[in-house]
Specification:
The chain has helices spanning 8-18, 24-36, 40-56, 60-73, 78-102, 112-120, 137-147, 151-162, 169-181, 185-196, 204-218, 221-228, 234-243. The relative contact order is 0.08. It contains 13 helices and no strands. It is globular. The longest helix is centred in the middle third of the chain and has 25 residues, at 78-102. With 244 residues, the chain is an all-alpha fold. The protein folds into two domains: 3-108, no CATH class; 119-243, Serine Threonine Protein Phosphatase 5, Tetratricopeptide repeat, CATH 1.25.40. It is 70% helix and 0% strand. Helix 8 (151-162) packs antiparallel against helix 9 (169-181) and helix 9 (169-181) packs parallel to helix 11.
């Protein structure tokens, strides 16, 4: 964790994101950067580590001092601004070191694969359900369930459709997605594998990413790395760096 690589503006923006304080417009810009800029997700996780650790270890007063002094810098001259900021970042860095040294912060305990899985997994958002056509009514009815968080219900409905078309990349992908969102990644592996075996499938790239996460959660790190190397989902690059 090198906080010198994170500017004051980035820190404040990331903190606002983690606290759900960004406006809708700023959130769109932030998420676009998160999905497309190499290394940015790592910065977000580093700040999340510090902020969560500060609270966990009763060191939040360090962050309060940081904010107080940031406010004071707005009244300082430009000549004085740089050393003052440097001092504040050092304070946050010291707090982070204290967190690590105490050894009880959740990030540094437990299974490392579980921690990485929790960081890098977000459910697939699903497909739009505004189609007026009734050709695929059952499929989109299940998609509504999925978007409402009824993952098991959605998955069971899609499994019924899968009986008639067991090699469908769409059905297998979203059944796998529903299982992942329902915290059943082991069961999702076969479905994602089916998707990756279909040449030029629309969901093949994303399937490799979620397959990698499913293997990661199951403890098969080698298989996770192999799958992640076959996808160009932006977050896969950061994850691979932590696994290699």
């Amino acid at each position: 964790m090198d906080l010198n690589d994170i500017s004051q503006e980035e820190f404040e923006s990331i903190e606002a994101y983690l606290k759900d304080q960004l406006s809708d417009e700023d959130l769109l810009v932030f998420e676009k950067r998160l999905n497309n800029e190499d290394g940015f997700s790592s910065k977000v996780e580093d700040i999340k580590t510090v902020l969560t650790g500060l609270e966990t270890q009763a060191l939040r007063e360090e962050l309060d001092k940081f904010h107080d002094e940031l406010s004071n810098t707005q009244e300082e001259t430009t000549a004085n601004e740089t050393p003052i900021r440097s001092l504040k970042w050092k304070r946050i860095a010291v707090a982070a070191v204290l967190i690590i040294g105490l050894g009880s912060f959740w990030l540094f305990n437990g299974n490392s694969n579980d921690r990485l899985y929790s960081k890098y997994f977000t459910p697939d958002p699903g497909l739009p359900t505004t189609m007026s056509s009734t050709d695929n009514y059952e499929f989109y009815e299940a998609m509504v369930d999925y978007k409402q968080g009824n993952f098991n219900t959605a998955g069971e409905k899609w499994k019924m459709l899968l009986e008639a078309n067991p090699k469908s990349d769409t059905l297998n992908y979203f059944i796998g997605s529903a299982l992942m969102a329902d915290d059943r990644p082991d069961e999702a592996i076969n479905h994602f594998n089916t998707v990756t075996e279909i040449n030029d499938g629309a969901f093949k790239n994303d399937a490799y990413y979620y397959l990698g996460l499913a293997y990661l959660k199951s403890g098969n790190t080698d298989a996770a790395i192999s799958a992640l190397k076959k996808t160009n989902v932006p977050k896969s690059k950061d994850l691979l760096k932590k696994l290699d």
